[in-house]
Amino acid sequence: MSVPYGDSRIGRAFERDLARRPQQSACLLLDEGTLALFQRSVLADVATRSIDVQTYIYEDDPAGIVLMERLFLAAERGVRVRLLIDDNGLASDTALPLLLDDHPGIEVRIFNPFHLRARWSRPLQYLFEFRRLNRRMHNKLFVVDATAAIVGGRNVGGNYFDQDDDSNFTDTDVLLIGPAARESASRFDEYWNSDYAWPAAAVPSPLDDRRRAELMDRYRQRLAEFQDRRDRYHELRRQFIEALETRALDVHFGTTTVVADPPTKVDPDLAPPLSPVVVALSEELQRADHEILIASAYLVPGAEMAAVIRELRERSVAVTLLTNSLASNDVTAVHAGYAKRRPALLHSGARLFEYQRFASTPERRDTPASGSSLHSKTMVFDRMRAWVGSFNLDPRSVELNTEIAVIVDSSSFAAELARRFEHDIAPQRSWQVEFVRAADSSQQHLEWHGIRDGEQLTLQHEPDASLMRRISVQFMRLIPGLDGLL
Q1: Distance from CA of residue 316 to its chain's centroid?
Q2: Is 265 a catalytic residue?
Q3: I need a surface site. Which of 208, 361, 388, 481 has the fewest CB within 10 A?
Q4: What pTM was computed for the model?
């Protein structure tokens, strides 16, 4: 029996393969930033019925504008477009993505909004509604025709797609075609139809006709900045569609499970006692037999996580963790929370790596910037199952933010993700952190081991971080209740 993909171009390309595997999805790993942007744009270009975009952040920089244009052109063809943005991720109430709501075929909704729109009032609103406003929608989804979906860690903005001149995020998404895309579409609908998603038109806005005209001028200017890349985009578009349709890409097939927190998690009075994402992760950790690889941009494990790692090590399960170094972490307070737990992680038996700020990534970046940060949230279990999503191993993901992830049961996909992980923990790209005992002392101290410009380095302080930043971390570690703010 054929899979009912209708007139979806991408769906038709995989219809025969998926018909032979009715319970499986096609999976393509997306870990190169520029291509991740172009692939979203291409999916928008080939959409025939619907495009659903869910994001924590949507920047109105050139990368965001390029995607806006593809959404606008899709709507011009009659495609229904829905854009759901967390209010915390909007730069302002005059952010360019809000202009899309003016198109009759596009609807924009704002999730968990601040009721007073003036930016200066937000600290005051936090005082009175901290329990709600401290919870945010962290999910990232890009769903086309309920047939193809991208799930992962990327927001919409230049530094998530290697388009920033100063600093970019190394990140990971997965393109899903088949049942996982239909699951993703259903998850999107849960958020879109919830009481926490407000139509943009219902949110007070300072826009008048003159201001809208000014924004349209800014939109056209930003779009013009991308003109020099149009030829390349159209060539990549052709290559990507051709590669998908001819199976020239590393497409894997596997059983998939899309797991997401309910939108009620942002409501402190209705939040579920246990996050479904956390429950799913706990089950995967317990299923592991011999190895777990974890990349988490923000790593602030609680006492329970350290206990889980100890239990895994007692079962001879090797655990390897990759997170940001102080220099590559864009949130110093998060690093302070992590640094407090770093000794416990090492004592639990885990191998620990920290991403280098100046990691050399020419093979994964077209426009090298002066620095990079890890933003991936991925896991590999026994090189048989893989996890890709928005979930960090930190208190905010566990208790406060809504999150989403896809679990892929495919040894070939898991093996590819494991190879990418091993590439990122290589000594040229990450520091291995270890406890070392001096020969003449019973005291232990931390050491960072890595390679810089071909030279093997061993350091006894946070690499590449200024003295003031290291002092800031030590000060923040002393703040009571810091975890509740991370």
Answers
A1: 30
A2: no
A3: 481
A4: 0.92
